[in-house]
Amino acid sequence: MPLQDRSRSLGILILWLMALGFPQVAVAELESPSSSAQTRTSDALSGESSSAAVPGGLVELGPGPDPQSGPDPQSSPDPQPSDVAGTEAFSPQGPLFPIRDNAEVRRFLEHFQTGDRRPIVERWIERSGRYAEMIQSVLRSKGLPEDLMFTAMIESGFNPVAVSRAGAKGLWQFMAPTARRYGLRVDRWVDERLDPEKSTVAAARYLADLYAMFGSWELAKAAYNAGEMKVLRAMNVLGSKDFWELTRGQILRDETKNYVPAIQAATIIGREPERYGFTASQSGPLSYEVAPVPQSVRLAQVAALTGVSLDTLRELNPELYNKQTPPGGTYLLKFPIGTSQRFVEARLQGHRITLATRDVGKPEVHVVKARETLRSIAKRYGMTLASLLRLNDLSEGRHLRPGERLRIATTR
């Protein structure tokens, strides 16, 4: 979106919020995490989840520290463990927020305990053990309620590689535009929506922005599902800032009306699963260490050099589309704890590393579209800006025209 158009949209939003009586407004680009939210939460509430959501509650709790801050697990070239603090799964250390006791929440609480839903929720609880500590640690570092982790229960059933019918992906079911907006890399080589820790950091930032905008976790969750503008329109038409009042109108879809109470019911169960008859044992927590691996190296070769199974490397690095490190420089690859040093030692001992020579489905020519830049095109194809400029004999300040054709480097 051109700068002037984006500024105009933000200005309209701010005036709208002021008219509704909001004391604080966070300037954030307006965009729903999914362009087809209707297909996302309906999946989560009807079967093994591959859909979208955010957890709810009623509390006047600020989002805490700067949501844009936080450690980047790719900031160090040395082997290092994942920066995840230990926290007992489903035992929040941070502030809790009250959950509305009403018919809608009770309906989902009963729904999750009966019929074919019970074994599905048990699988969600079992899977949660792998990611709960990491999610709670990230939320805590952002000053957010740790109960927000139950967003991922409704979003994806704690499945980090879940894909919805609308194309939303990962634990938090981001659509690609929103993922990029919150700092995730999504291109033909890497899709960080599938990286549990990085996508959790992005989701925490987005939730913090939504809370700053609406001042209510219930409205923030509704906006995560339906989009900011849809919630603002419902508030304007109905003249209310209370989510439950908005559910009585026709602006919000049924999927969004069900979304918040479903998350709140999941939160109640998640806080005390045994109380509701869930005895599923939880998986062990996610743990790994990272080490730099050269560009365009296949995971199969890394597995052969380290003795780590290929399936394990794939599970730890699901964001790598082609099962190889992307071009454009070294990549911090995740290894099981205690194994990354084997790769370092293999290189020191002179073991030859063969670069991938086959570029699966990558075009050799890119046709420029409106508003694309040299930098955005280079990022899309996993190239450095310098290599794209050099390959096409261009200067960095060169203005691109729609329809122009650029040569794209291969990994040969």
SSE topology string: HHEHHHHHHHHHHEHHEHEHHE
Task: Estimate the global geometry from the Cα principal axes.
Answer: flat
| Rg from Cα | 23 Å
Number of domains: 3
Approximately how much helix is present in the residues? 40-55%
Bin the strand percentage. Answer: under 5%
The CATH architecture of the largest domain can be given as: Orthogonal Bundle
Strand tally, please? 5
Largest sheet: spatial strand order: 1-2-3
Return residue spans where pLDDT drops below 50 for at least 5 consecutive residues: 1-12, 22-40, 47-89, 357-361
Alpha-beta content class: mainly alpha
Overall pLDDT metric: 79
In whole angstroms, how far apart are the ends?
A: 35 Å
Query: Would you state the CATH class of the largest domain?
Result: Mainly Alpha
Biggest sheet statistics: 3 strands, antiparallel
CATH topology of the largest domain: Lysozyme
Number of helices: 17
Task: Explain what the structure shows.
It is a single chain. The chain has 412 residues and is mostly helical. The chain has three domains: 3-276, Orthogonal Bundle (Lysozyme), CATH 1.10.530; 289-348, no CATH class; 365-407, Membrane-bound Lytic Murein Transglycosylase D, Chain A (Roll), CATH 3.10.350. The protein is 42% helix and 4% strand. It has 17 helices and five strands. It has helices at 3-19, 38-46, 103-113, 117-128, 132-141, 150-156, 176-181, 196-214, 217-226, 228-238, 243-246, 254-271, 299-306, 310-316, 340-348, 374-380, 385-392; strands at residues 80-81, 289-293, 331-335, 365-367, 405-407. The strands form two sheets. A three-stranded antiparallel β-sheet has the order 1-2-3. A two-stranded antiparallel sheet has the order 4-5. Helix 5 crosses helix 8, helix 8 packs across helix 9 (217-226) and helix 9 (217-226) crosses helix 10. Mean pLDDT is 79; it is low at 1-12, 22-40, 47-89 and 357-361.
